[in-house]
Amino acid sequence: MTDYEKIRNRKRAQKVLTGLASRKMEGYFVETREEALQKALELIPEGASVSWGGSQSISEIGLKEAILKGSYTVYNRDTEPTAEGKRAMMLKAHSCDYFLGSTNAITEDGVLVNVDRNSNRVSCYAYGPKYVVLIVGMNKVTKDLDHALYRVRNTAAPLNAQRFKDSKTPCNATGSCANCKSPDCLCCNFLITRYSKDTGRIKVILVNEALGF
């Protein structure tokens, strides 16, 4: 990312923060992933129960590793060897204090747009955990909802599909969305979060770097 892009991002981030506040979501802006990690840990008190979905961004800033090493109760599906155990842990995540993740896109006026295959992630964003903490690189900011949906379909989903080597989705083969009904489809449920019923439940840390998909 060039210095010019970072300068532009700082200005753009102010629009996003204003939009988030108008939607009863908390927004923060930091320059680096190290600062993002520090801010996230400031928001999550020791002793809290914590879980997460399949977010690349929280791994990239070291948040998962810090939580696993810290004094927290962790609901981690990756520790479960069976499908039944993973499902039970994903259901348990709905009762945690803090659910961690990112967003596939965020508009300049603060709307979050996500797509999910298992839908455990988007269901926790919508309801369940007491708080949701999202780590969001400025590469995910879009002009409006139409652009956000386009980004989700044609950037986030095809890139995410590359992680699943056995995926047979059209976007894995071609790199762009075919609005498919493939058995391996990653786009089972879309969630548009335009307002938070509970003030401050959703906390968004914008990072002046490219993170995640």
Question: What is shown here, in short?
Answer:
The protein is 38% helix and 21% strand.
Describe the structure using short key phrases.
213 residues, four-stranded mixed beta sheet, globular
How would you characterize the overall build of this protein?
The chain is an alpha/beta fold. It has one domain (3-207): Rossmann fold. Helices cover 38% and strands 21% of the residues. The protein has helices at 3-22, 33-43, 56-60, 63-69, 83-92, 120-126, 145-161, 170-174; strands at 26-30, 49-52, 73-75, 98-101, 105-107, 112-116, 131-137, 141-142, 189-193, 202-207. The strands form two sheets. It has a six-stranded parallel sheet, sandwiched between helices. It has a four-stranded mixed sheet with strand order 8-5-6-9, sandwiched between helices. A hairpin with a 4-residue loop joins β5 and β6. The longest helix is centred in the N-terminal third of the chain and has 20 residues, at 3-22. The two termini are 15 Å apart. The model has no long low-confidence stretch (mean pLDDT 94).
